[in-house]
Amino acid sequence: MDARVSDLFGSGNGHGSGSQGVASKSGNGFGVAPKKSSAKNKKAKARFSRNFKPSNNTPYLPPELKLVNPTQYRFEHLATQMKWRLQEGRGEAVYQIGVEDNGMLVGLSEEDMRASLKTLHRLAEKVGADITVLREREVDYDSDVPRKIAEVLIRKVPDDQQFLDLRVAVLGNVDSGKSTLLGVLTQGELDNGRGRARLNLFRHLHEIQTGRTSSISFEILGFNSKEEVVNYSESRTAEEICESASKMITFIDLAGHHKYLKTTIFGLTSYCPDFAMLVVSANTGIAGTTREHLGLAMALKVPIFIVISKVDLCTRATVERTVRQLERVLKQPGCNKVPMVVSSTDDAVTAAQQFAQSPNITPIFTLSSVSGESLDLLKVFFNIIPPLSNSKEQEELMQQLTEFQVDEIYTVPEVGTVVGGTLYSGICREGDPLVVGPTDSGQFHKLTIGSIQRNRSACRVLRAGQAATLALGNFDRSLLRKGMVMVSPEMDPTICWMFEAEIVLLFHAKTFHKGFQVTVHIGNVRQTATVEAVYGKEELRTGEKAVVLFRFIKHPEYLKVGAKVLFRQGVTKGIGHVTKLQPIGQYQPSQREDEEA
Predict the structure, then answer these.
(1) Pfam families, per this entry (predicted)?
(2) Distance between CA atoms of residues 180 and 482, nearest Å
(3) What is the average per-residue pLDDT within 101-114?
(4) I need a labelling partner for 412 at 20 to 30 A (CA). Which of 83, 139, 236, 517 fits?
């Protein structure tokens, strides 16, 4: 999309700097429209950066000038194009009406705009989608007749459970209001100021008693094809939400207290969130684990946006002070983020589209879970935000052999053993034979998939990138543990006790050397490892880089070269990636299976 469109539909608030109102190849960058020849407006326009480089993930989608009374041939061509756009956007597409292919803001008369929207309705009906006009703007054009351009969101009606699913990890310091915010969003009822909204999210008695999350819980918020919110206020069960939703936001509620940090890191590394939401309390500002959680998300390259909660408890000046404090932190050399304060619906749409295109844009919302102030802006943001990966990348992952990461293990009455996790690659169906491991001796056991559930509702086919629970029938639970993988029998998994990683030591009180023990997080693997060697150096200090050889102390693990490594021990922290594996041998069936054969 041309920068001229971006300027017309750009964010007009005075907060933040840099790439606000950016151009988008996919035709998605919109925001607040200017009034004609206003001095204030010219200043707003001057804030926009023209040097923004959008993501290359999305193909170029030219805007539509007008769609007035197309011929049958043209109508069929447009329907085919809409199908392709929906497929590329994984069920969503944005159309610009009244904009030429070269980005020229021509605009349409009122009559032509009505006719174009009517044609879009017909096209959407033909391909099984619904349309919503996000906004219309008048443009300055050499004509006596007022002319407009419009931005229209097309969303496919869900079929066969193929809704768009985005995962959002919820981070923030203890008592910042994370669980309460999720309770309000997913239950559809405001909080009473004493934590009533969060009670449905807690999994343990001690969490209810203390009001502090200690485990990972999941909550869902749906949007239907008409952009309406679908949550527990309208639907009784998760299954009903899944049936009526075209787009699903799965919130991963993580712990804020420092003593549960390992659980929070596990949630970030294992569940592969698309985005992270950092919740900051307006009255305390950046405190406790806030900086640490921000650093973790950035180290793992998870795009992050910020929600300032509890604004009903503070004066406007206190909220603004917290916003300025966050802006200072985000603009520091270590972060290099562009803060963008969201104060209107137009800002929310702009933020959603630019946030997905540029990792530097960081939207900031200020809201209250008690009064409901600005809560709708956050819902608009979740409704509009597009997926980071396009359909081509997902197709490539689906062509690979099946690999399912085991994150949770349950025993369900009358069902048997159930595992929860994410399908990293391939496709999984009921009745598929897989092997699970590695065991302490590095072996794999055969098993068969029973039933599959996604978001607590039955599912026939699981595709790469989707999270689900799989029933394994009477498979012995004692043979399973978190960190295992279930893979296709044709795969030759690399199992290792030792691996090399190129690391950066983020912080260490003294020196990091051979013999030091750390807790290593690699995807869904979480285990203590010993430093066997530091290549090229005797020891490491804070900020230094080196290739290090690690050895697991309990059991071998399934790893991949290139996987992100995050390790910690007390105040010691470091990040890096796996560069080399030392496999213990090829896949062997367990002795028990040989005896059964």
Answers:
(1) GTP_EFTU, GTP_EFTU_D2
(2) 28
(3) 82
(4) 236
Query: In the 8-state DSSP scheme, what is residue 400?
Result: S
This prediction has a pTM of 0.78
* Burial class, 542, CB count within 10 angstroms (exposed 0-12 / middle 13-18 / buried 19+): middle
Average pLDDT over residues 270-288: 92
Whether 559 maps to a domain, the answer reads yes
Query: Which residue, 362, 342, 394, is CA-closest to 276?
Result: 362
Q: What is the pLDDT of residue 590?
A: 44
Reported as a single tens digit per residue, the pLDDT across 133-168 is 888 888 876 667 788 888 888 988 766 556 788 999
Question: How many domains is the chain built from?
Answer: 4
User: Which domain covers residue 102, as residue numbers?
Assistant: 72-156
Matching residue, tokens 């090829």: 586
CA end-to-end span of the chain, whole Å?
62
H/E run at residue 383: helix 375-384
Cβ-in-10-Å burial (0-12, 13-18, 19+) of 15 comes to middle
The answer to whether position 449 is within a domain reads yes
Q: Which of 337, 371, 388 is the last residue of a domain?
A: 388
Cβ atoms of residues 115 and 123 within 8 Å: no
Residue 286 CA to chain centroid, in angstroms?
A: 23
The Cα 159–Cα 150 span in angstroms is 28
pLDDT at residue 592 tops 50: no
Q: Which helix (H) or strand (E) holds 526?
A: strand 525-535
